[in-house]
Amino acid sequence: MNTLKRIDPRRPFTVTAQGRRRITLGVVGEVGAADAGNASRADARHAAHGEQPKPRRTTATPHHVLLVAAHADRGALDEHARQTLAAAALIADARTEVVLLVFGEFTGDAAALGADKLIELPMFDRRTYAPDDELNALAACVAAYAPAHVFLPDNATGDGELGRRYAAAADASVATHVVEIDATHVSTQIRANTARASRALPEVVLLAPHAVDPKLPFVGAGERVAWRFDGDAEAANAQRAIRDLGIDEIDAAQVALEEADFIVSAGNGVSDVPAFERLATTLGAAIGASRVAVDDGKFTRDKQIGATGKTVEASVYIAFGISGAVQHLQGIKDCRHVIAVNLDASAPIAKRADLTVIADAQETIAALNQAAAAARGARATPATLSQPGKLAEGVLA
């Protein structure tokens, strides 16, 4: 029986520093290789010299601006936002600078992400819903820099809404769910993803995930710009149509895995499920599981993470006793930080993890529960602070 998956001939390409790429049956094919020849040779020279510093994209006097706007999360841009910034940097010519407007505190390296200028608006916390103020801030930044195009990630966490609201307020041309982009055109998929619609590069571009490779062979200038937005003054001139009612705090166990920001997941190496669930409650994390753990009856099917279960996008994902089958890795590919606890240092999940703890999962869970109990006791009884060795002994036991 033929088990090869059918490749959609109309699939979009991915923009990389070497040009436009499609992947077919493990072979990488280039589109527009002639246009990307110079970039490919430059990248080859860079690779030959190992870990040398990346060159500046351009040092010419800028005549044009591309503006990228995105929300920060815990001081950093997520993968989708980094892809959007990379898209602007890749299509910018030598006389075009890339300006990054960040809503929220940003502590990352804007230059490494491809930005020439950084405007940070720390007053916009992601826990506060202020779409009118954000719209006014974006409009003020556009008025100050007059960008040729404005780029935002097309997501459901604020950027996509902001881009649509700005396009409507400014009566600007806009393209949403963009899956293909270059310096002259954008494309989006239509007809149940069996065809594409293309148009010239609009004023506002809302980029879909994974259309651009965020790894760049160059850096931007990374200049921080002191730019102040007075939201109160803007609000005084307009009647607010939206009122923030705050955030309802709920038990992490009630959060759908697709929406959870912190997940602890159990595999075949977890035998004491109640201890694992106590740890999840202590950490305030949602509970996931591998297919093996679900098939063994330890967890219900709605907890399964992987290609045949749920695909998650947590900021932190801790895997206890999960070897990391390809199906499970597919389900956690969009997680920001992965921590693996496994006895096997060569397990597949160790290659995906940002941090791997080589230890027995059950013993680690017990030690963490013990450490959490000791920490709670220390807060309740200040006298225990004079015995710091007990907590360390419990963790290492």
From TrEMBL:
<dbReference type="GO" id="GO:0009055">
    <property type="term" value="F:electron transfer activity"/>
</dbReference>
<dbReference type="InterPro" id="IPR001308">
    <property type="entry name" value="ETF_a/FixB"/>
</dbReference>
<dbReference type="Pfam" id="PF01012">
    <property type="entry name" value="ETF"/>
</dbReference>
<feature type="domain" description="Electron transfer flavoprotein alpha/beta-subunit N-terminal">
    <location>
        <begin position="65"/>
        <end position="215"/>
    </location>
</feature>
<feature type="compositionally biased region" description="Basic and acidic residues">
    <location>
        <begin position="42"/>
        <end position="54"/>
    </location>
</feature>
<dbReference type="Pfam" id="PF00766">
    <property type="entry name" value="ETF_alpha"/>
</dbReference>
<dbReference type="GO" id="GO:0050660">
    <property type="term" value="F:flavin adenine dinucleotide binding"/>
</dbReference>
<dbReference type="InterPro" id="IPR029035">
    <property type="entry name" value="DHS-like_NAD/FAD-binding_dom"/>
</dbReference>
<feature type="domain" description="Electron transfer flavoprotein alpha subunit C-terminal">
    <location>
        <begin position="257"/>
        <end position="333"/>
    </location>
</feature>
<comment type="similarity">
    <text>Belongs to the ETF alpha-subunit/FixB family.</text>
</comment>
<dbReference type="InterPro" id="IPR014731">
    <property type="entry name" value="ETF_asu_C"/>
</dbReference>
<keyword id="KW-0249">Electron transport</keyword>
<keyword id="KW-0813">Transport</keyword>
<protein>
    <submittedName>
        <fullName>Electron transfer flavoprotein subunit alpha/FixB family protein</fullName>
    </submittedName>
</protein>
<dbReference type="GO" id="GO:0033539">
    <property type="term" value="P:fatty acid beta-oxidation using acyl-CoA dehydrogenase"/>
</dbReference>
<dbReference type="InterPro" id="IPR014730">
    <property type="entry name" value="ETF_a/b_N"/>
</dbReference>
<dbReference type="InterPro" id="IPR014729">
    <property type="entry name" value="Rossmann-like_a/b/a_fold"/>
</dbReference>
<feature type="region of interest" description="Disordered">
    <location>
        <begin position="37"/>
        <end position="59"/>
    </location>
</feature>
